Amino acid sequence: MDYIEYYKTLDVSKSATEAEIKKAYRKLARKYHPDLNPNDKEAEKKFKEINEANEVLSSAENRKKYDKYGKDWKHADEFEKAGYDPNQQQYSRQQQGNQEFSDFGGGDFSGRDFSDFFNSMYGSGGRSSRSQAKYRGQDFNAELQLDLASAYTTQKQNLAVNGKNIRITIPAGVENGQIIKIPGHGGPGANGGPNGDLYITFNIENNSDFRREGNNLYSDVDLDLYTAILGGEISVNTFDGKVKIKVPEETQTGTKVKLKGKGFPVYKRDNQFGDLYITYKVKTPTKLSQKEKDLFAELAKIKNHE
Asked: In Å, how far are 23, 60, 167, 217 from 148, measured between CA atoms?
């Protein structure tokens, strides 16, 4: 792939924060995603460039190298060892084992880029090629969308990463924005070095009637006026089915009830769950018959004479 100007690709400034980079990446990734642009080669190419840019700029270490060495950021360690200063376009005399590197003509790189410098020192024709260092592969970043119901149970999913299919296990209780690492599924290492890792960010879409805060769930339950006044038993929804609970007499709107263990699974903790908090909303009856209105009027008279 041709050299990509990563900041330009994500349409952010060089001073962009981590949050700004993440926001820009998500916006562009959605716009150019292959699923939304079928058979569009340009969109596919743009999507790959966006992902490559994000993989570099979302990593503080890689971003620092890229800011300093540009397209040759992957060779930052070699440049550092050689004492090369990209701002002054020169490097100092360094000792590499038994071989001493001189300044190669005074260190004037006006007509050469970093790659030229790297090749002159570590190219296949150089004597140092016999002792090339091993380099760890690049980390990859990906996003995975789940609905809240899917996040409630442990499940397995197949993912296509860099042309390869991998099968991962997603533990129940994963949270929105949570990042998990899949070791060894990033870019390939160089010269026998280890592969990078894959970092997956989860976007959990809540399409349920429950609000989630950590491991706890919250919901509002309508309560008819008669049950609120006289008490009784009602059936309420939990995330894994209905349960019956007793309502005390004279229950007020806004009353909160905790159902212990009926919340969300605790991440990587078998058989541990948060709690479900229910808030009662007492509903005033409508479309009353004349008899019902008369009874309410009678009740009002009794209450006023107490």
From this structure: 22, 31, 21, 11
Cα separation, 212 vs 178, whole angstroms:
14
- In tens, the pLDDT along 211-234 reads 999 999 999 999 999 999 999 999
Q: What is the pLDDT averaged over residues 51-69?
A: 88
- Please state, in angstroms and rounded to a whole number, the distance separating the CA atoms of residues 42 and 44: 5
Q: What is the 3-state secondary structure (H, E, C) of 53-106?
A: HHHHHCCHHHHHHHHHHHHHHHHHHHHHHCCEECCCCEECCEEECCEEECCCCC
Does 62 score more than 80 pLDDT?
yes
Would residue 297 count as lying in a domain?
A: no
Q: Is the pLDDT of residue 258 over 50?
A: yes
Q: Which range, 68-72, 129-133, 289-293, 302-306, is most confident?
A: 289-293
The residue range of the domain holding 153 is 140-205
Model pLDDT, residue 301: 85
> In CATH, what number is assigned to the domain containing residue 159?
2.60.260.20
**Residues 273, 194 share a domain:** no
Examine residue 230 and state whether it is found in any structural domain, yes or no.
Answer: yes
Do 164 and 235 sit in the same domain of this protein? no
Q: Is residue 18 part of a domain?
A: yes
